[in-house]
Amino acid sequence: MSSGYFAGLLSSSFMFGRVISAYFWGIVADRCGRRPVVLLSLASTGGLAVAFGFSTTFLWALACRFLLGLLNGMTVIFPTLVSEICGKEHEVVGLGAVTSEPVACRRGTVPIPDAS
Fold first, then answer.
1. pLDDT in tens, 33-56
2. Can you give the residue range of the structural domain that contains 6?
């Protein structure tokens, strides 16, 4: 098997963990608040990224990537946080600023906010 096959498995295990846990993180954010979810997600991302970096076997790396997706609730609550911070009128610009504003602004799809 080629290295592309194993790289695909690592990437898909991360997304599989996200898909499995997305509904759960939405419920947790509604019941416990968004701040605990953000803090737990950031802590688990830091710890599991280090564990992934020190992985010596493919199965360890696969497990780290799966757990990283499973314990990452940021993608579920992130649009809500941006909407609350930026307001409804600047929501697109706020999401673009974090995800892909430099690329989107150059292409003309996201307006650059006025500095005034």
1. 988 998 999 999 999 999 999 999
2. 1-72
